[in-house]
Structures are given as structure tokens and as C-alpha cells.
Amino acid sequence: MFKIIKKMGTSKMLAWLKLRFDLGGIFLTIFNFILLIIMSAEKFVDFFNITVPHGEMILIVIAIPLAFIFMILFGQMLIKIKYMEHYADETNIRNPIYAELIKEIRDVKDEVKKIQNK
Q1: For the whole model, what pTM was predicted?
Q2: Minimal CA–CA distance to 38: which of 56, 65, 50?
Q3: What is the mean pLDDT of the chain?
Q4: Which of 16, 32, 40, 83 could make an S-S bridge to 78, C-beta 3.0–4.6 Å?
Q5: Contact 56, 41 (CB under 8 A)
């Protein structure tokens, strides 16, 4: 692995590291969410006045799977409404290189139409 990193340039190495960091960050978010549930379980037990013995553990055992199911359902909803496509489009609009590339493609298409019409 380190041989591959040595052969890369600085910018490629940083992009390689950022990709791994971002992928790891996704799982870190999930881990933080689990810790949030664990740390706030006692407050939920007090708030809802749960008097069952080991109510915090029961809440944790129920809340963590429900949270994962909710996250999966929320992700499915985002897929259905094509969130990532719209997000990519919005990001590309602000990208000057992308705008220039689209302009060049349109110019080439216009030239092709002119040639076909002759």
C-alpha cells in the first residue's frame, strides 16, 4: 500500500486520503449516533417515566435498531426523490469548469446541426 502512495503525486495522494477519510466519516457518524442514544437513554427513561427494571438497557436495545431502520428508510426516501441527482446538478451549476464544458458541448452540437443542414 505504501509503495502505491509513494508513486502518486501530492494531489492524488491527498485525494486518495480524503476518499478514505470521507468513507470512514460515514461510519463515525453512525457510531456517534449510537453513543448519543446510549448517553441519552437515562434522560428518556426519566422523561417518559419508565419504571421497568433496567429500563435504560431496554430502551437502548429497542432504540438502536429502530434508529438504523429509520436511517435506512430515510435513505430510501432520498433515493426515491432523486436527492443525489439534484444535489449533483446543483453542485455542477456552481462549477465553472463544468459550465465551460457544457458550453463547448452545446457549441459542438450547434456546429454539427449546421453541417447537417447544409
Answers
A1: 0.53
A2: 56
A3: 82
A4: 83
A5: yes
